[in-house]
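Exercise 7. Predict the structure of Diguanylate cyclase (GGDEF)-like protein from Actinoplanes italicus.
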Amino acid sequence: MPQSTSAGRDRGLLLATATVVVFSGVWLGAGLVHVWSHPWVGWLLLPVTAVLAGCTCWSVSRNSELDAGTRRFWWHLTLACGLFALGIVANTFDAVGGPAPSQQVGPVTLVLYLAVLGTVLWALLRLPSWQRSRSDWIRFGADAGIVLLTVGTLIWHFSLRDHERWVAQTGTAGPMLAITVVAGLSMATFVKVAFAGAGRLDRRAVYILAIGSAVSSALGSLSPFLIDRPYLSTSILAVPVAAFSIHLAAVSQQRAGNRQPLPRRSRQKISLVPYLAIAVTDILLLTSDISDPVQVRAMEVIAVALTAFVVVRQVIALRDNQRLLGTVDGQLNQLREYQVQLTHQATHDSLTGAGNRALFEQYTCGLLADGETFFVALLDLDDFKAVNDRLGHRVGDQLIQETSRRLSAVLGGNGLLTRLGGDEFAVVVQAADDVPALLEQLVVAVGQPAELDGATLRSGVSIGVTASRPDDDPAELLRRADVAMYAAKGTGGNGWQWFDPAMDIAADDSARLAADLRTALRDDQFFLLFQPIVSLPTGAATGVEALLRWQHPERGLVPPDVFIPVAERIGVINELGSWVFARACRQSADWAARYGDTAPMRISVNVSARQLADPHFVDAVTATLRETGADTRHLLIEVTETAVLNAGIAIEQLHRLKALGLRIALDDFGTGHSSLSLLLTCPVDVLKVDKSFVSGETAGRAADIIVKNIIGFTRDFGIAAVAEGVETAEQAEHLHRVGYRLAQGYHFGRPMAAEAFENRYLDKPAEVLSY
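Solution. The predicted structure, encoded as tokens:
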């Protein structure tokens, strides 16, 4: 059947039931002033209301859109309506079936009405309930007791206390029982929907049933007032009202369909029921007939019982409130703890536990606002990227954590340590502290060896420091410290520098130089020079070292010690190194093709630590050798001992280069931390003794001893030795006398172009010493 047709039919049946209710009300009202000669007319249509309500309930129970529990409930109400119709017929025969109208209720009628009430109550109890705590059940019991006692008192006071007269008129106490049960059912319905829940049943339908039950009960309780009118009965109105409420509830459910009921509100409101109950009972007590001691005593007992219920309920409420307050206090404490944790997380570094940039800004802003003089030192680990590239980020993180612990230990409580990001830390100290001594302690502490994940690391640190000024802000303090820190790196690192205003000029110049450096290779501004490596004592060229030079279009010739650190800092050193190696390979192949056996035995090419840290470096070298056709026997790779100091990937790369046929030279030997140990792990073919042991201010007796000892153990290791920095003939003669056969320096030749080298050395065949 279409939904519109079904809805129209439901409205028509409901209108018919409502018409019967109106007719019954008018009939009962008119009977109060007029004696009906045919009282059966008032009973004639009452069974029809129950049948109509039953038809609508049956229609709802067959609605496939509803869940099984809801359909079962309406099927039970269909059954209840059938019993209700039979009860009405029996009640009609009791009232008008005898020789004279009567208000007597027979046992059959009473049993049928009680069956109706039992069926409805059973249907309600089978509906799903909400979950409730023990305190909820105790409070519910108190509320139910209050309601039952109050309603029972009202029914007793206004109706049942005259039961002797009622029984004398009707001949039975059945109506009193029916009224009491109907009242109990209405309260049970209210309790079910308000406290225990009603599953997916339409809430409005349940409210309609509860209200209809209560109104029907109230109308039934008025029967004692009609004792002197045996042709009338309040059932004439109570019955159709009950049927109409069932009918209206079924229509509401039909319209609601399978709509999900609104969620139960968890917020508890203040209940006025206990206080209203006491007020009603107190009024009844005050208006009771004091001449009737039984009535007074009954009202007193009822008042005491209600007071007891209210006290129990209040005690439960107070206990629940106390528990709730305890929960709220606990949650507030947790909230405060969370706030502390969030504040700590917002101002501290998660890796090291030190403060972060936010805390640095907050702390320095406070000091600046107070007008105090303080110092900011910016610390950056030297060659930290190489550690990450060689050993991985996990070891890098461990190094940062260890550095943070060491810095904290040195500072103690005399300053603020913050990590700004990466391997960069900031320290804030007060003016009263001995800043230079503190900075020296920081440098020494960070430089101590660290055992991390099976590797021994020795990390230097560069520090820039500046003093605060009245018009400073955190960003300006960090900028000046950063400029000073890069100045410290420019001097070789592992030290500290005060900020000087002249550094700003140098920093600007360095920034411009870095910008120019990024385009210099593309614009072909680089070229190679070659410095001879000669045999002693003849001075014949046995090899050359390829040296990179930059011809800047505006600055002119830029020294390598100026642009190489900048190239490493901005990350273009790998690209430059690849370019140098490719040019050296082409030059070696060209000389071998043109000069044959008189070509230089070796061309040395410098490789930086960053190149060795690149996992793809050896693959790039292999591709360049294949592209240029250079003979690996004529090529020598020079690395500084600091580039391979911390083994790992650098040593692996050198072994792979050695496997290609390239020879390996260790440059600046003797200036690092662990040169001798490198001879055991690094595949070294040539040692280049640093010029500081040969010439210059540091050369002396101690240096001479070192030079002699180096040539001694190189023979034992089968390693060639090249003395760098030879500037005079006396130095060359001395080196030859103590055992050196290879040397390099200005005495033999400055770095020169390829053509100049060819003209000076390659056109004159000479005895050449292999190395």
